[in-house]
Amino acid sequence: MKKLLVLIFLFVGATACQQKPAFEASRPVMPEAGQTAVYYFRTNFICETCESIEGIVQDELDTKFADELKSGKLVFKQFNLDEKETADFALQFDVGFKSLLILRGDTVINLTNEAFLYALPNPEKLRTLFAETINSL
Amino acid sequence: MQEYFTNLLDQSAFPLWSAFLLGLITSLGPCTLSTNISAVAFIGKEAQCRRRVFLGGLVYTLGRAVTYFVVALPFYFGAELLNLTTFLTRYGEMLIGPLLILVGVVMLDWIPIPFPTFSKLRSQLEADPQKGLSSHFLLGVVFALAFCSYSGVMYFGLLIPMTIQSSGGLLLPIAFALGTGVSVVGFAALIAFAFQAVNRWFLRIRQSEIWLRRLVAVVFIAIGIYQVGRLF
Predict the structure, then answer these.
(1) What percent of chain A lies above the pLDDT cut of 70?
(2) Domains, chain A
């Protein structure tokens, strides 16, 4: 009984120390005509690599694409795959788990593999690839 | 270190070598680190026998290889399994925390095994060193199934397409498994060597094996609680 109480205490302590900020998810919607969209599909549970990817993407958009964001030519949306509507929406892109997509018209570029591969060991490479991909559309 | 191996991967033209490097990179990822630490602790707890640590590491890696090979099979033969991929990647990381806590608690004998048959089997496994390695194999199988976001992308996003397109075929998941196991075997062997060096000075500590087991159990529980805590 005593050991069980110790475990429960440790568990509650661990969960209490891991308070996560609220995650504001967008409603699933396709980008408008002529608009470039950066879509980040994630879940409520986010890992270190996922956080790093989000940080890199947000930082690149804020520094190199601030004007496009302001004018609405470029949008960045985060979607919560834990919501059924979003999960169904993501299927059209063959997406079932955390993914980073860049869309313009009929073109969909999936940068998920590169994002996870480079986010922590080589973030500069990811930044360059991300910026080049957006500029190429 | 991860950057170094990532650069090697970028320059690699050989699929088997690429798969091995990918496994190595995956094992150094942040979310796979917790299961790797647990695996190192589990394998290294038999530090009094270096041969057994090395064999245990190999058997653990074999367990991983079996999982990666079996999971790759349907994809290799053309099945579209987005649902399986999604399930393994999204729920694997949720299950690893409770699993580690459970294993740790059982190792500490906080929860007795209620079935006489299992208790007898466990005694037999612990009595016979050769049979005892089956727990390492099972650990490898289960830990390989615990895909997190990072390892899920590495495996399903990078390795599986490579496996389908490459002439190396289903050898690639095996090479990937070897890559994931190298760091674990290496660190476990280091612990064994370090322990033996220290143990010469503490020859009177007859209970060291029991205390190692308890330490490993605590490591499992601590990492399990940390993993579960991250879910909330």
Answers:
(1) 83
(2) 36-136 (3.40.30)
Q: Which of A4, A45, A117 is nearest residue B6 as measured by Cβ atoms?
A: A117
Q: What are phi and psi of B20, to 5 degrees?
A: -60, -45
Number of domains in chain B: 1
Q: Tell me the pTM.
A: 0.78
Is residue B217 situated within a structural domain? Answer: no
Among the listed residues A126, A130, A29, the one whose alpha carbon sits nearest the alpha carbon of residue A85 = A29
* Partner-chain residue, chosen from A50, A120, A121, that has the shortest CB–CB distance to B149: A50
Q: Do β-strands A36-42 and A74-80 pair in parallel, antiparallel, or remain unpaired?
A: parallel
Residue B31 lies in a domain: yes
A39 close to A101: Cβ distance less than 8 angstroms: yes
Residues of chain A with Cβ-Cβ distance to B229 below 8 Å are: 11, 14-15, 17-18
Does residue B229 belong to any structural domain of this protein?
A: no
Q: How far is B145 from chain A (nearest CA, A)?
A: 16
Say what the ipTM of the complex is.
Answer: 0.79
Interchain CB contact of B149 with A (< 8 Å): yes
Q: Which tens digits make up the pLDDT trace of B100-125?
A: 787 777 777 776 554 444 444 445 44
